[in-house]
Design brief:
The structure is a homodimer. By secondary structure, chain A is an alpha+beta fold. Chain A contains 15 helices and 18 strands. Chain A has a six-stranded mixed β-sheet with strand order 1-2-6-3-7-17, with helices on both faces. The first copy, chain A, has a four-stranded antiparallel β-sheet with strand order 11-13-9-14. Chain A is globular, with a radius of gyration of 23 Å. The interface between A and B is large, with 99 and 99 residues. Strand 11 of chain A pairs antiparallel with strand 11 of chain B, so a sheet runs across the interface.
Chain lengths: ~450, ~450
């Protein structure tokens, strides 16, 4: 990277962090409906920020829900076009009392910025905006054509983005899609992410007696919906962590020897993970390492469960209902609709007597796997090497960005996941944070990537 | 009953209902701590009401928690002394939106009064106060000596009453204890209740990773506390409703042929119960009728369960913890401490890997069974016959009033459960109500009982 760009970045560093803090102060939570005003605030803030960076056509494009923020710079004829994706919405901050500093009052300590959205995804998204601004400020132009597509519903399953991509396919047309919305492998090694797990979410509600019953007068006489739910959920996994839904693993592609080698080369420190999580032992499907289980094997996780009186003290009742929210992570070969059908069949065959069971489908996304040899992927490895001074490793991700698969399929362009977060930055949890040295290195990496893919 | 008493009751009926409404308007909820002011209000109101009735020494006696309201009338030398027990605290009213009229705005419709506490226990307790008032007003005296002990923590396991009874044993000394805090067998037949189930409550909390984890990054790699809890709870009961805690049934006294005959004579309409509860079928331990299962067989019921994000939408996490509150109803022969030890052993032997399990003991009460031939019990049958114009049936109750067993043991006096509620009056549920004809008949029954036990 040339020295002019370097000195520009150095002299604007404090200003960038102050701007990031402004962005993080907006509680643009998309779950629920109480933060609509802040969603609008985040949209306005982003548009102003993109204009300031020197991008053209910065605007809010309507969807069936929260708008997409779009901008572009298309003055590099003959050069490829890159579409940068990010999201401005964040997870809820609860439980608020578990945060050391308030979720929406960004605080920098020990080189990290603490706030909801710091790593997921405001901090990572802002890297791109600041990289574009730096290139435009120093060179007066970008090396390639660039479009930005920044959505506001990633944390609620991008529920309107699919239709948006279909409608706006022409406007969004690109040669590669770049997304920074996840963690690198670890602090020392940036990573090129060539796979993601899919997602199949659903909720189950069991209804029993038409209202709560006194457990003294009715206990033992009627089915308790919590018992029935517990029995049903326990039947979905064995005590070794293997999912017992008939057919669940049938279409999973087994790990190839090359896959196994790639995992082994990562030399993942499971003991360190165990310590960091504060558990006495890690746990999961037998025969696979932690990294394999969390990235290349499918899961079924109960995300929440509820039934009966949730207040202080005990209310001795047989409750009228009980419910759970569940999500499966899927891997290459599995299809969310097929998996949901298998689960529905499992539940139908085991419905306990005396209750009704309602399964409601939720979020859904196909798994994603791209060739590690695609030129746009290889270019990202070279850019990381410049930004971080270290050769990146090739890894698969355990999370799900259903729209990655959608971009891949609908725009016909390779998706490059250029992550700058770290796995232990508490995303979706209290004390979410982002390492500011990765913010700095990320800007260099993005500048370098755009230069790498320019045809010479 | 003499005509003077009858016409007194008739002419004061409206006034009695208005006073009951005043009592029901006080939201004297003992669960949690937000209603302390109303607890105090209920105490003051009761003392005034007892003084108005003509009782002596009406006062609040301190306990380690909510005070006991005491009063007496001891001017019948040579006659037995009856101790009347009731409680002025009520269950919480949630979910408030499920009530047709607000829980603390009593409403009379179709001959029933709707309000939290209408049947449990304010309405039933008030019968005694009004019976005493009527006898004192008409005759200038009571046929026997009477004491009242009205507590404010029945809905939170009477947690300070045991110590109170031990401390105040002398003041409370009596020849019989009368309690009206439950349902009669059914509308047509008053019932003499000669048994109650005991109670063994506890909570289980499972802790896993030190904070919530993103299920994409960690799902499949660590134990999910909800899965572990579900597995543990499912292991406590089989799919036929039989409890699978080793030794749980060992000390249960089997039903005698006389017991079986007594149950058969009740000709309980299970189909009607099924319809009333709105379930497709009743359910429980095989080989026993609904009535046997709910009064003479022990149970284990999960009263509440929680884990993960409880708000709107789905938060895809592996939660840091999961918890359940459970209560067992126990029958003659079982001891709550022994049962809790069996449960603790069951849990210890099955603790899933990767979580810690904490069992916290809760409410506790021994089962109670008295001879149906005790003279104070027989007298209650004659009083019911007068009050209701129908011979009572002898039944066992499924609920737990742990202090019944405590009164029996600590005061050495038979406990007469003289219930005036009905089983379908929604106690502990929305739209709790009390049939006002049973309020009227109850006053006659109590007057008659006090006259029946007077030595002639």
């Amino acid at each position: 990277m040339n020295s002019e760009l370097k000195s520009y970045l150095a002299s604007h560093r404090d200003e960038q962090i102050e701007q990031l803090k402004q962005f993080l102060r907006i509680p643009s939570v998309s779950v629920g409906s109480e933060h609509q005003e802040h969603i609008g605030h985040a949209v306005d803030w982003l548009i102003a920020s993109l204009r300031q960076a020197g991008m053209d056509n910065a605007q809010a494009l309507p969807t069936g829900g929260n708008p997409v923020v779009y901008a572009d710079w298309l003055h590099a004829p003959g050069q490829p076009t890159v579409l940068i994706y990010g999201h401005y919405d964040v997870q809820p901050s609860d439980p608020d009392d578990a945060w050391d500093t308030p979720a929406f009052e960004p605080d920098v300590r020990d080189g990290k910025i603490y706030a909801r959205g710091a790593t997921d995804d405001k901090g990572q998204l802002f890297i791109h905006i600041k990289a574009l601004e730096a290139l435009l400020a120093v060179h007066g132009k970008l090396p390639v054509n660039v479009k930005l597509c920044i959505e506001g519903e990633e944390e609620i399953a991008s529920r309107h983005l699919h239709a948006f991509l279909e409608r706006e396919a022409e406007r969004l047309q690109a040669d590669a899609v770049v997304i920074s919305d996840g963690p690198m492998h670890d602090r020392a090694r940036p990573s090129v992410l060539y796979g993601l797990r899919g997602l199949c979410g659903f909720s189950v509600e069991l209804k029993g007696p038409k209202h709560d019953l006194h457990s003294g007068l009715y206990g033992g006489g009627v089915q308790n919906p919590i018992h029935a739910l517990v029995e049903l959920l326990a039947s979905m996994k064995d005590s070794d962590g293997r999912i017992t839904i008939d057919g669940f693993y049938d279409k999973v592609n087994p790990l190839s020897p090359e896959d196994k080698t790639r995992f082994d080369e990562l030399r993942h420190d499971e003991e360190q993970v165990r310590k960091d999580l504060g558990v006495e032992e890690l746990f999961g499907e037998k025969g696979y390492s932690f990294l394999e289980r969390t990235t290349a094997r499918p899961t079924l996780e109960i995300n929440s469960i509820s039934g009966g009186y949730q207040g202080e003290g005990i209310k001795p009742i047989v409750p009228t209902s009980a419910a759970a929210k569940i999500s499966c992570r899927l891997v290459d070969g599995q299809d969310p609709d097929e998996i949901l059908a298998l689960i529905q069949k499992h539940i139908d065959e085991r419905k306990p007597p005396g209750v009704t069971v309602q399964v409601t489908p939720g979020v859904k996304g196909k798994p994603f796997l791209v060739s590690p040899d695609d030129p746009y992927i290889r270019a990202s490895a070279r850019a990381y090497a410049e930004g971080f001074g270290a050769e990146p490793v090739y890894v698969r991700g355990g999370g799900s960005i259903p729209i990655v698969e959608a971009f891949y399929r609908l725009l016909g362009a390779p998706v490059v996941m250029m992550n700058f977060g770290l796995p232990d930055e508490n995303l979706h949890a209290p004390n979410e944070h982002f390492h500011l040295d990765n913010f700095d290195k990320g800007i260099v990496t993005v500048c370098s990537y755009l230069q790498e893919i320019a045809r010479r």
